[in-house]
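Hi everyone,

Forwarding the result from last night's run.
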Amino acid sequence: ALLCLASGATANTAGPAWDKFPTEKMADKAALQNGAKLFVNYCLNCHSASYMRYNRLTDLGLTEAQIKQNLLFATDKVGDTMKTSLDPKLAKESFGTLPPDLTVIARSRAGAQGSGAAYLYTYMRGFYRDETKATGWNNSVFPSVAMPHVLWQLQGQQSIDQHGKLELTTKGSMTPQEYDGAVADLVAYLQWMGEPAQGQRTRLGMFVLAFLAVMTYFAWRLNASYWKDVK
């Protein structure tokens, strides 16, 4: 299945307003682990994440043994990068374009309507059946996208009315709430993959701001002490 998330900058601004991505997922290691599993099972067939190594997933609380047992399908070395086994020439002949690398896809999809995570969260829930397209699928956020709906067995099938409203017509293996949660987990992982150290950076930033606030207070008191006898 082809997970072609991008083929032009205009994709970020077309279509409906983006939904709010549940940012609390970024602090939930279980959600990030599930997102990594979804990524490997549904995205890595056609896409690479060539700047991410499997062993970096230990930052999410996984052991190397768990990574080898559950996530190594395209390689046998936990230190390898996450590359697809799909032949680039075959991909271009079959789909007309090379599936983009997804390492920083969440960072690259930010736009006027919100973050890249918000775009992806809306996009992955915006597929509907369209028999006029070669893949049989279209997307309300990215019209005429080259990608089929790789998660349709989980979500089911949607249709779209003349007002652009999506309606679930065939149920999938998940309820709508469960599917939204799974997509949020996947998007959280894509967001994390673009900058694995972002959680540490945020925590460090809070510490630095607190330190500066304390030092500002002492500097202000010291300045007042120096100048109190100056007429």
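The CA atoms of residues 18 and 155 lie 19 Å apart.

Cheers,
N.
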